[in-house]
Amino acid sequence: MEVPKKLLNSVERCVDEALEGIVSSNGGLVLLKGHRVVLRSDLQHLKGKVALLSGGGSGHEPAHAGYVGRGMLSGAVAGAVFASPPPGSILAAIMTLWQSGSSGVLLLVKNYTGDRLNFGLAAEQARTQGVSVDMVIVADDCAFTQPSKAGRRGLCGTVFIHKLAGALAEEGCPLDGIVAQLTKATKSIGTLGVSLSPCSVPGCQPSFQLPPGDMELGLGIHGEPGIKRSKMAPADEVVKTMIDHMTDPSSQSHLSLKSGDRVVLCVNNLGALSCLEMAVVTRAAINYMASRGVQVSRVMSGSFMTSLEMAGVSLTLMRVDEEILRLFDAKTTAPAWPNLCSESVSGRKLYVEPAERPAASEIKPDQGPFTLAMRAVLESVCKTLLQRQEELNALDRAAGDGDCGSTHVLAANAIQKWMQTSTIPGNPSLLLTALARLVEEKMGGSSGALYSLFLTAAGPKLREGCDGADWAKAMHAGTEAMKRYGGAAPGDRTMLDALCPAVEELMKLSTAPPGGHMAVLQAAVEKAEVGAESTRDLAAKAGRASYVASEHLTQPDPGAVAVAAIFRAVFEALGGK
């Protein structure tokens, strides 16, 4: 098995370079020389207040350095990847914080044996030097129904403790007071994770293997085994399983939760879930809490305590009251703390009604002489697009996803259905407006947007009249809108290569003599067809085809061919040969 790829300079220096990256990009942080310790750059503001120190192995970023700042941690000590930091560095951090004038130093430690030992040793050494120091252990893992003697593991709930401790320390609460409040708060926090893939320490193979289609419930943030493997399931089902397990009263590790309780929810990305997946999981968690009658007062969703590149998520719940929420909402300068809304998310109205917009089918103007001619034109265009579906799809396969014909058929079907149930307006402006709405809603994709732009911009030019000059202005306005918003121009191998020369010819409608309009239209059709054929030799500079090598583009552009076909259908419907 190959060692997974990672974007690093060296395995040996990756932790030091990561810390330098974090500190160099945040003006409120500094590094303690000779140690992997991140400190607040304003240590003078700790005078008379309790300093807060946490840390652990690297690989869990943004924990813990990302939570250093006013209102959260005073410092964070980093070990090697997934390894507890050495007691010498922990002691150096304690002494630096103590000598800055703090009234005491509180160590916030995840419940892992290495962390307990090394932070504990450093604490004892500091006491011998007269430092007022204490420690709070966070053990929020809800995975095991009967935990071993080592106890529940410390997971993402530690971040909640960072926040509460920081708010209390900033207010000047004494060391023993902070310890008492945090000890109580730790009993109200539970966390459970699920993994879809393993992670790997830099330079090493993955820490475990998961068969394709499997997931693992209850694993640790270092890749320690979980409690159960099962087949992948929908997000709603996975979230329900996680929360039910976390709150199962038969488990010794459960978080007691009943209807009417208020909680803060943290949806924590373990490393490699997409933002899309995270949003779906967050929705599922909020909805399931609501179904159980639990009020979600605050939500954090993002990466807060990761496990390198593990694809997975953990859920953390903390029961809260008004005092805990007050501390949770207190301001902090810690760079990794999110900008949260300080209002309850439960019971919020998620949707607002859109502004009223009449549907195309609701436009019921009077008929006129124009109506019969336009029905014939629309029927001809729809028939042509239906007949040429496969031809357009085949042309599109070389440059896109092969759906150009199918997309145009969506428009044709929508127009046919509309003509069966609606009166074709006798006013050209209203007709183009109705057609713009139809193609926007039913055609979809870039083509739908472009045709809708053309029709929407052209329609207003026909409000006052519909003689040759008015149609010329309308066609010009529509083409200019497509160029302005689409970003393409003639010569870019798009539908504009057929449309622009045709519209340029149609501008002659402004000066055409009576009875000369069909001759102008015929010339426009010919220009469109020549323009479409010319795209065979053009290099694509816009649209999806611009990402395809020129040597693979040997056929005409399908969009241009469709435009030429539409012009031909209009011409023939109006009696042209």
Which features characterize this protein?
six-stranded mixed beta sheet; alpha/beta; 577 residues
Radius of gyration: 33 Å
Output the structural class: alpha/beta
Count of individual helical segments = 17
The major sheet is characterized as:
6 strands, mixed
Regions with little confidence, pLDDT below 50 for 5+ residues: 544-549
First-to-last CA distance: 69 Å
How do the SSEs run, as a string of H and E? HEEEEHEHEHHEEEHEHEEHHHHHHHHHH
Topology overview:
Layout lengths: L13 H11 L4 E3 L5 E4 L9 E9 L16 E7 L5 H13 L4 E7 L2 H15 L5 E6 L18 H14 L4 H12 L2 E7 L18 E4 L10 E4 L3 H12 L15 E8 L5 H17 L3 E8 L9 E8 L2 H8 L39 H19 L1 H9 L6 H18 L6 H16 L1 H14 L9 H19 L9 H11 L10 H18 L23 H16 L4
Describe the overall structure.
The protein is an alpha/beta fold and 577 residues long. Helix content is 42%, strand content 13%. It has a six-stranded mixed sheet with strand order 1-2-4-3-5-6, with helices on both faces. Strands 9-8-7-12-10-11 form a six-stranded mixed sheet, covered by helices on one side. α14 packs antiparallel against α15 (496-506). 49% of the residues are buried.
What's a quick, concise take on this entry?
The protein is of the alpha/beta class and 577 residues long. It has 17 helices and twelve strands.
